Amino acid sequence: MSNVSLTQAIPMLLKAVPRSRNFEAVLLFWVAGIHAFALAQIQLAVSQRMSWDMLYYWAPPTISAWIFHYVLRKYVLNADGLLLPLAFLLNGLGIAMIYRLDLAEITRGGQDLFAERQVWLSCFAMLIAAVVVRLVRNPLVLRRFPYLAGAAAVVLLLLPAAPVIGRTFNGATLWIAIGDLSFQPGEIAKILLAIFFAGYLVSRKGPLSEIGSRVLGMKIPSAKDLGPILLFWVASIAVLVIQRDLGTSILYFGLFLVMIYTATGRGFYVGIGLVMMVTGALVASRLFGYVGARFDAWLAPFATENYTAQGGSYQLVQGLFGMAHGDVIGAGLGSGFPQLIPLAESDFIFAALGEELGLAGIFAILAIYLLIVYRGLRIANTHQDDFSKLLALGLSFVLGLQVFIVAGGVMGLLPLTGLTTPFLAAGGSALLANWSIIALLLVLSDSSLKRVKE
Amino acid sequence: MNRQVRRVGLALTVMFIALFAIASSIQVVRTESLYQDSRNVRASYETYKTQRGSILVGQTEIVTSDAVNDQYRFLRKYDSVLYSAVAGYFSIFTGSSGIERSMNSLLAGQSSAQFFEQINALLDGTPVTGAAVELSLDPAVQRAAWDALGGRKGAVVALDPTTGRILAMVSKPTFDANLMSGHEYDPVNQAYRDYLDDPDKPLVNRAIGGDLYPPGSVFKLIVAAAAIESGRYSTTTTFENLASYRLPGTTTTIQNSSNNTCGEGALVTLEQALIRSCNIPFAMLAVDLGQDRIRAMAELMGFGDEIAIPLSVTPSVYPTNLELSQLALTGFGQFDVRVSPLQMAMTTAAIANQGVIMKPQLVDQVVASNLNVLSQPEPQVFSSPMSRETAALLTRMMVDSVGYGAATNAAIPQVAVAGKTGTAENGPDDPYTLWFTGFAPAESPQIVVTVVVEDGGGIGQNGTGNQIAAPIAKAVMKAALNR
């Protein structure tokens, strides 16, 4: 070890340290401190004084994270040490921003408060994640029920269109509601789909990888090859038609493409899949008014007719104004005007954070997401078992793709969709789903090491 | 499979690089243009963080920011509608106008001149407050102009020709800026919409902007100045004295406003034509003199210029590529000649100030909250469109116009008043636009006053500049001379 250079040492440290639960505990201290600072700064900036109120938004999530940490220590000692602190950092940052928007709402005499709910939903999601860790200590159990998972995913996707319980909001049919409780089943569906694809593809890997007949040097896929992708393309279009949301549809289809590509190693699937996806999106923008309106708002957000249109680009433009106001270092938590952006607490929390934390904050948040995704891909890379490999890849990819679609939408890179910003946005289903993804990744990382040891 | 996993990682990295790039573009490259977008209210929100400076007339604050207990912390208050056209309005929701707009960065404490004040405030923790803007307006003159214009639509501008300081600026109908400085969106937006939808356009400062006015006979001052300056004409140059004149190249005929010849005799002098304000001699003069000389004189006086006082003044227009018939009409300020009242006041100031126009200015000084004077515009020459002799000749004719000519209603006992009226046509059946522009005392001018009254002062085609506009100017002059 004595003649290890610095450049060699850093990757070694990165590989070695993050598996330690002690490392995780140190990071959790840091993260809890960051949250406390964020809440304190918000109170000082908005009301010029600090109050004990902040404990309410700080303590329960922190305690939940520590319970989660304890469960990990007990059941999956060797799991990745970065995932929990990183996800918790985003979760707490989201609570802080939602609390800040609540304060603005109270100042202007409004009643729509979200922070308290978000606190308890976060706690609930983290505790459920702990339960998932406890139940799925061996991820291979998930392999037993691929079709059950697939069927459950389809049911969940269809639920919002069901009578009585289905709900449409901002033009997208993504919700179900029973009484006061509303739920976005698509968020859970993405996990079930990843499990289904992983199980299905592992068992069908051989046939799907076979090369079809060659004509003039080009590989022509057989009907057997095209079958699954066509089927799922049609299914994605069906999701688009039913849920009226391009983002959800692209998220599922993208997940499918990447998983089938990884399982088979055939770039052909990605190539033809992307063509089908773009074609589908373009056709949908022509056929369905709600998709077309989103496209118009995306292409010319500053045009007056789009800006003033119902469901037009007003929100997008207000978000851009906010981010521009944030500049490089941000207005400071509590010192910007994120309350001017409609739905700043959920769909546009990314823009709200961009306004108050600036480009520096946006880079940090994106880097945290990327780090989570990289940790997930690393698990996929090191895992010996193909099912676990595929599942880890699918879960990390779907998280990364969702961030790309949402953040790209808020910043005008892509058309706006109804997807939520993972861990940051107000909303219970998304928290539940994304914390469950973290739980599964943790379990997978633990088992990947066990396998290596064997 | 690991090769595929790495490629997926690469694809995700590329996607995130795209996100980093677009975020940088929004938050670094496009910040300025997004911040300046008129739909972005953040700029005006930002200005509410500091106590905005007051606007003063004399030693009296006419606009103040008062502490209130809401998220904006300060409420903008306007003491009197007398000053609305000049002070403007300042709204969170609907933007700003007037001094509030053109002096915004100083009032908000954000100008570069206040940089060290901001640094100091940062160091010792005292809040920055905006600078106070002291206007050149004279409260007595302003009040006189407001009262004299009464319920009519129009504008009054008064200035000191020797310095360019604007002493009065009134535009009617006007608005109540308090209705738009409120902190609740709905009532503010409603008030703003109502003002915008009002056909009388109360938000427009008619003295310097809006649609401008046809000048009618007050434009003869510019034609006469151009003629005398050309060296080809004197006050005694004569024209054929006709009762009716056929416009060159057309079958259309025009008349003097008297529907008769311009006084007795077969010939009429330039002097008499101006004093009696006859159209036919000036139509002939314009054709003879040529459009280029008239336009050159007009432009020397400020036509076509973007003038900031610091409110921006809509440039007055002398049309181009005129046919002879059109040129003839411009001789007495008809056809497409369009002027602002301030432009006519500047023209008159050239005559009053021995041929030199001083740059009009509304601001006396800007004082920071630490009492440092941040800005104090010095009197500045705008242009010298005519010689001292030409100015003296025009003064004499304008004094005679008030003495026995077309502008008699501006006469003040024991004071030599110089003046010129105008009664401009807008269309065959439309009410006239009535003008008076002049100064007093003629021998050592203290005040130039220009008055415009729209819609014939409410009596259609029956009113004249002398009947309606001249008495208003007289009242303003008296207020200035009695100070």
Structural class of chain B: alpha+beta
Give the helix level of chain A as a range of percent: over 70%
Q: Which regions of chain A are unreliable across 5 or more consecutive residues at pLDDT < 50?
A: none
Q: SSE order of chain A, as H and E?
A: HHHHHHEEEHEEHHHHHHHHH
The mean pLDDT of chain A is 86
- The quaternary organization reads as heterodimer
* CATH architectural label of the domain at 216-239 and 265-361 and 379-481 in chain B: 3-Layer(aba) Sandwich
SS summary, helix count of chain A: 16
The radius of gyration of chain A is 22 Å
Low-pLDDT runs of 5+ residues of chain B are none
Keywords:
heterodimer, A: mainly alpha, three-stranded antiparallel sheet, two-stranded antiparallel ribbon, 4% strand, B: 483 residues, alpha+beta, Beta-lactamase, 17 helices, 37% helix, 18% strand
3D structure, described in words:
The complex is a heterodimer of chains A (454) and B (483). Chain A is 70% helix and 4% strand. With 454 residues, chain A is mostly helical. A three-stranded antiparallel sheet of chain A has the order 1-2-3, with no helix packed on it. In chain A, strands 4-5 form a two-stranded antiparallel sheet. In chain A, strand 2 (172-178) and strand 3 form a beta hairpin. Chain B is of the alpha+beta class and 483 residues long. Chain B is elongated, with a radius of gyration of 27 Å. In chain B, the strands form seven sheets. In chain B, strands 3-2-1-6-16-17 form a six-stranded mixed sheet, with no helix packed on it. In chain B, strands 8-7-21-20-19 form a five-stranded antiparallel sheet, with helices on both faces. Chain B has a two-stranded antiparallel ribbon with strand order 4-5. Chain B has a domain at 216-239 and 265-361 and 379-481: Beta-lactamase (3-Layer(aba) Sandwich), CATH 3.40.710. The chains are: A mainly alpha (454), B alpha+beta (483).
